[in-house]
Structure prediction request, 180 residues.
Amino acid sequence: MAWAITGSGHFLKESLELARRLPDVDLFLSRAGEEILSMYDIKLTDLRQQFRIFRDNTASSAPVGLFYHGEYHSVVLAPATSNTVAKCALGISDSLPTNIFAQAGKCRLPAIVFACDTEPEVATESPSEWVTLYPREVDLMHARTLATFSNVQVVGSPQALEHAIQAHLAQLALSPPAAG
Prediction:
């Protein structure tokens, strides 16, 4: 499974805990995703103990070539910023996460997107405290648009993310995540 992390801290820890419980997950980090990990005191060295990690440091997003060779059965973007969701909804692929999303679509692989902005009011954990945010209508619209794409499922909570992954793995007859 290819798992992209963007620049959102919205349930970042919970998303990574779910990824840790899955077999054979590779992490694809945007530059902002890499920054946000350090803001939440998550170290790349610790993640490298379990995951193969691809960083957004090539102009052509070279790691997307792995999709052409059947390395992945699906893509997860979790958590996905409103910026990433908008780019995916508009077909813009200018970062590693948006490129792997585009390549998943071109290779007809399913994608699950844990969008940060799916409700008019969102409680989220910042690096120092819980805050309430009010996504703009344009952010909600992009999430709704993305949900209309073929082979794409948009979810709005860690529980919905886990359920979507479990259902997808069951469809593939692979092991679901261990209970957390």
Q: What stands out?
A: The mean pLDDT is 93.
